[in-house]
Write a structure and sequence with these properties.
Layout: E1 2-7, E2 12-21, H1 23-36, E3 44-56, H2 61-73, E4 76-82, H3 92-99, E5 105-109, H4 112-119
Parallel strand pairs: 2-3, 3-4, 4-5
Antiparallel strand pairs: 1-2
Helix pairs in contact: 1-2, 2-3
Length: 121
């Protein structure tokens, strides 16, 4: 399951990955982002929460790559990933090398508290 929300005053996009994430869910999330991202003008920051992720289908790597490209195209300035269990990092750094033209500032945190400090919220 993927839940995406925006906070315009904070210029923040939050993506929560929960339970078991499938390729169809990644595709739906991509389509949803295409409708949400025009809400931001002048750039935004991305907070990605993996705290409740159990597993993600490895076949979703293409959808993740397209999502990275879409986010960059719409002015993403910074990525903060919350990954309490580093074994659940499916290689976002490597995927980003192939899909970001200009790699944004990326910070990986173990808790949402750490992420909030990094984002100044």
């Amino acid at each position: 399951m993927i839940l995406t929300t925006i906070n315009k005053p904070l210029r923040l996009l939050l993506i929560n990955y929960m339970h078991v994430v499938t390729v169809p869910e990644l595709e739906r999330s991509y389509e949803e982002l295409k409708t949400l991202l025009p809400e931001f003008t002048g750039g935004f920051r991305l907070l990605v929460d993996f705290c409740r992720l159990e597993s993600m289908d490895p076949a979703g790597v293409d959808a993740i790559g397209r999502t990275m490209e879409l986010l960059e195209k719409h002015g993403m300035e910074m990525v903060v990933r919350v990954i309490p269990d580093r074994s659940k990092d499916i290689g976002f750094k490597i995927i980003g090398i192939f899909h970001y033209k200009n790699i944004p500032r990326i910070v990986v945190c173990e808790t949402m508290g750490e992420a909030a400090k990094v984002l100044g919220i």
